[in-house]
Amino acid sequence: MSVSEQDLREQVIDVMLKLGERGLNKGTSGNCSVRFGEGMLVTPSGIVPEALTPESIVYVDADGAVAAGSFAPSSEWQMHKGILDRRPDVRAVVHCHSHYATVLACAHRPIPSVHYMVAVSGGPTIEIAPYHMFGSAELAQAVTETLDGRLACLMANHGQIALGGSLARALSIAEQVEEQAAIYWGALAIGGPKLLDGEQMDAIGAAFGRYGQPKRV
Questions:
Q1: Which of 78, 182, 204, 208 to pair with 121, CA 20 to 30 A apart?
Q2: Would you say the pTM of this structure is higher than 0.90?
Q3: pLDDT tens profile 119-130
Q4: What is the pLDDT of residues 8-65, one digit of tens each?
Q5: Which of 5, 50, 55, 76 is catalytic?
Q6: What SS3 string covers 171-207?
Q7: CA distances (Å), origin 91, targets 99, 107, 192
Q8: Which residues contact 194 (CB under 8 A, 6 or more apart)?
Q9: Is the pLDDT of residue 1 over 80?
Q10: Taking every pair of C-alpha atoms in the chain, what is the biggest distance, in angstroms?
Q11: DSSP assignment letter at 124
Q12: Using alpha carbons only, what angle is made at residue 25 by residues 174 and 132, rounded to the nearest 5 degrees?
């Protein structure tokens, strides 16, 4: 079932509000986008979630242009566009500065295979994209490359980012990244975790592929 542009604009606002309500973001930090047509809908720059309206969500076309009179897109729009251009399997991107994920990102500590739910990121670990200035083309490239084949990563001295087939799924993955960051942080505080090995994580990845309800014909 196709989703209208208006519905997607409202979904973007809903995700930004939920990031704040669930303690994953504060103020004007963080942003999200969703694929629409040949381009994307992305949050505007510098507007708190409570002040967002459907009209303030910005359409960025395939060439990276916005319509005259439009709100300015998020400073991270290049990162969102780079991911969506490179990943046809992805429809939505959620970026936030959640507490524990940001702590680990500032310590340059990727999240290892501390718990089986790390695999929600699309791999046995949650890696860290190298630091570059926010809003820069260099950051966009670094994050896009780090996410190759993955659904989430940390961003050095910055935060985290999650991808999904929908905004709701990307938000769910961002929540799980924060949970795994908190688990790892806690395990480090009491002497360090005992990690799952590669074979165990491979089995988990395969099991995730079979998880949930089968598709109905």
A1: 78
A2: yes
A3: 999 999 999 999
A4: 999 999 999 999 999 999 999 999 999 999 999 999 999 999 999 999 999 999 999 9
A5: 76
A6: HHHHHHHHHHHHHHHHHHHCCCCCCCCHHHHHHHHHH
A7: 25, 30, 36
A8: none
A9: no
A10: 56
A11: S
A12: 80
Rounded average pLDDT over 178-191: 98
Is 76 considered catalytic here? yes
Q: How far is Cα 44 from Cα 28, in angstroms, rounded to an integer?
A: 10
Placement of tokens 């005992």 in the chain: 194
Task: Report how far residue 107's alpha carbon sits from residue 95's, in angstroms, rounded to the nearest whole number.
Answer: 19
In whole angstroms, give the CA distance from residue 138 to residue 132. Answer: 6
Angle at 99 between CA 96 and CA 105, to 5 degrees: 80
CA distances from 179 to 25, 65, 111, 216 (A): 14, 36, 11, 32
Which 8-state DSSP code applies to residue 93? E
Q: Which of 113, 92, 39, 97 is nearest to 70 (CA)?
A: 39
Number of Cβ within 10 Å of residue 84's Cβ equals: 24
| 187 contacts 193 by C-beta, under 8 angstroms | yes
